[in-house]
Every structure is written in structure tokens, then in C-alpha cells.
Design goal:
Distance between the termini: 24 Å
CATH topology of the largest domain: 434 Repressor (Amino-terminal Domain)
Helix content: 55-70%
CATH architecture of the largest domain: Orthogonal Bundle
Strand content: under 5%
Number of strands: 0
Number of helices: 8
Number of domains: 2
Length: 123
């Protein structure tokens, strides 16, 4: 399964909204140079939640939708961050070392597998 970058997602949603890059920028008061660089993955997305929200609204993403969450997840990942909603969840933060070990391919003991299963059930 291929992964999508923030820039690819941004461009796909802008085009789906029927807007050229220039029209998008004129309508929503964004800098065309920055938008072009975001779409080409040459500039990371803003880190500020307020800035990301204004972009998501301009891209006509419905708050709380799968696309909305994917937009914020891609922005966070591009910036090397956990999404804000996960950073605010103390239980999720406590589970992150297990996720990191799993991503690194470190073997899981039977107990760790049970712990992961319980964590998924509680999420």
C-alpha cells in the first residue's frame, strides 16, 4: 500500500474542490509560493493548529471526518510530530514505547502481545 504525502493529499483535495492553485490562494488568502512548495513537498506544513485548521477548512474538509484526521496526521508526520489529539492523551503516550518497539521490528513477547491487544481494545 503506497503512502500519501501531505503535499499529495493537499493537491488532491484542492483539485477535488475545483480550484487552481492561483484561485485557491486568491479565495483563501494563502501565499501561492508556499502552497506550491507544500504541494511539491518542498516546504513542511505549518505546525500551528490554527493555521492547519484554516487550510483544512479551505480544502473543504469536514471537521471530524476521515479526511480531516488524515490531513492533520500527515501534517504532524511531515513535521516529525505526533498529532495533537494523541499528544493530549496520557494513555496513548504511555503506550507509545510499545508502538516504537513494534515499528522497529523488535520481537514482542507473549506478554507484550497481550498488552498491545489490551491497548487496542481500550482505544
Amino acid at each position: 500500500m503506497a503512502t500519501q504525502t501531505f503535499g499529495e493529499f493537499f493537491k488532491e483535495k484542492r483539485i477535488a474542490a475545483g480550484l487552481t492553485l492561483r484561485k485557491f490562494c486568491e479565495t483563501y488568502h494563502f501565499d501561492p509560493g508556499n502552497v506550491s512548495r507544500w504541494e511539491r513537498n518542498l516546504l513542511p506544513p505549518p505546525k500551528a493548529e490554527e493555521s492547519l485548521r484554516s487550510i483544512a477548512v479551505a480544502l473543504q474538509l469536514e471537521e471530524g471526518s476521515e479526511g480531516w484526521h488524515l490531513f492533520f496526521d500527515l501534517a504532524a508526520a511531515t513535521n516529525g510530530l505526533l498529532p495533537a489529539d494523541l499528544r493530549a492523551d496520557a494513555n496513548m503516550i504511555a503506550r507509545m514505547p510499545l508502538v516504537f518497539r513494534t515499528l522497529r521490528g523488535e520481537p514482542l513477547t507473549e506478554e507484550k502481545l497481550r498488552e498491545l491487544y489490551r491497548a487496542i481494545e481500550e482505544a
